Amino acid sequence: MSQALVEHAEAVAQRAYAPYSKYFVGAVVLMTDGTEFTGTNVENAAYPLTQCAEKTAIGAAATAGYRPGDIAAVGISASPCGGCRQWLYEWRVSEISYRRADGSIGTATCAELLPDTWELPSGGGSPEPSKSEGAGSAGAGSAQQ
Ligand SMILES: [Zn+2]
Predict the structure, then answer these.
(1) How many Å lie between the centroid of ligand 1 and the Cα of residue 141?
(2) Of 53, 69, 115, 122, which cross-links 27 as Cys (Cβ 3.0–4.6 Å)?
(3) What is the DSSP letter of 115?
(4) Rounded to the nearest whole angstrom, what is the distance from the C-alpha of residue 82 to the centroid of ligand 1?
């Protein structure tokens, strides 16, 4: 399956909007129910605004109502960048296949691609303020202990 997904991603890459870099990337996201979403990189004249192929494809899946855990596998025509590795981790993708620069196909889990990944603390949102915060102002009449 990994080679087929990568080859499909390479076909999708031909539709990329990459007038600046001329570096065409495609991604295919295969959902656990068999649905597929595709994406390409979409560049912008303001270069940092460029969208990666993986984000385009995952965004399409999210728009259709899918959520983390719903992706069975991802195929990419190139090795995912650091930012996309964080996205793939968020979506808990267990099989990511991609074309390496040497032409071979690599397959890895999201955790293998991004070990010691940062995650939002459990419970989400902002962490509770530390009781040691503002220690320098203790005695100012605002102590809450
Ligand atoms: Zn990327």
Answers:
(1) 50
(2) 53
(3) T
(4) 6
